[in-house]
What we know:
Elements: H1 9-30, H2 33-42, E1 44-47, E2 52-53, E3 70-73, H3 76-87, H4 90-100, H5 106-158, H6 163-177, H7 179-192, H8 207-224, E4 232-233, H9 234-243, H10 250-260, E5 267-268, H11 270-288, H12 301-307, H13 332-372, H14 376-388, H15 390-400, H16 405-437, H17 444-461, E6 465-467, H18 468-490
Amino acid sequence: MLFSGLGDVEEAQETLAVGVGALAGSTIMLLTVPWAMSVYYGRVDFSGKDMQPNYKGNPKLTEGAANSLSGVTLTPEIHHGAWMMMMTTMPYFLIQVPAFFLSGDRVEVSSGEKNWALSGFVACMVFFLYYLYTQLKMSNEGADKIKRMAVIKDSLKKGAISLSGALAEKVEFMEKKHSDAMQQMANEETKLTEGSHMQNLGDRPSPEVAEYLKGIVSESFHLYDRDNSGCLGKKEFSLFLKDFHESISDDQLEDIFQRFDLDGNGAIDMSEFICACYVIIRQANRADAGMDSSIRDITASQEVGKNILREDGDDASEEEEEIPEDLTSLSPNEQQKAIKSRAFGMLFLGTALVLMFSDPMVDVLAEVAVRLNIPAFYVSFILAPLASNASEVIASQYYAAKKTRKTITVALTALEGAASMNNTFCLSIFMALIYFRGLAWQYSAETIAIISVQLAIGCLAMKDKMSTWTGFMVLAIFPLSVMIVAVLEYMGLN
């Protein structure tokens, strides 16, 4: 994009179309082709009355399932990415609105656009810095969470503290933090379940607590599930409690299984396991406050068992974060240092390759356009994304194919993030070229296509799920966007 606007000014005005084509093609391609592929490879069956993606099914996808009855969930992280993507389209309006009213040669148009380009450049950099801030904040929160969990897990494994001793204070804090929301939920559910004698809804864990507990005990669940059945029998669960220094009688163990073994198979699955751990932790906390430490107050257990992981419903086979094999023996801090060092090295190498090949690539794409006798924009729109965004296509498909909430979130938010980067950092390059080099922004049709596609995908991403059929419709947007640009240019918009 930068090299397309360098060199002789008149020549740069012609080759700038290559950069704009790369920008438009990259943005639109990322939000259509790999997005649709992620939905297709990450799809699971819809189930339940509300037809939500069922990530706990076995199998997760029924062979021959209708495209309208399968799809993926769209998590709050994906909603945030969609909101960020749509918000960062604003700099396009700063340069495009005045461009509608300007005409003449390059000098006249660029003169009228100069101050608007400066405003657009400032807006791009503000949004870019804000985007980096939000990503850094989310990353730090995730890193801190991982470190805290690692310390707790290590203490539990060493037997330095009991399960309830390690988690009771944190669980109580999280419950208090969300008490207002929980009270509102309890009031609404009481209205819906009048006559059902629901009691002590304060024992219902919030989705945040459920996710937190799952992060702590899921590894242990798999460890004690020696037959890989996805469930723990009474002996396995009793051994878990004993190893984690929780004293529980046979009668109490029997009571837990009767209340949490919803399907009556004599074993508890991951969601039921977390339910039991939650109640034991809460009862231990109450015992410390002078209350009866028995497990007699395990209430509303069936509703808890059905809903505890609704917000985080990946099945028990969800994979842990992958660490390179040569780093597994290092401590968490050493791993972080090694990963960062390796990442910066790869970034440096990648930047060097970009600087080496960008200028020749612009010349090649421009020459291809001349020989095919078509505008350079269309050549770069199709070919440039294949070279610059192949990694995103492969990575999004790889993650989505694991068919979990976490991995589909990673796949789709990465694509939204790439679009936000194009809207901020990449667009700022064009704003700088217009302001400092006196080039003209004469790409109304292309701008309309870029903004329209992002708003369309952003609105779709704000829903709670996306069906496979909708994914195919998203795929069709890519060729449709090329047709829109061609029609608008044919009508003389540029």
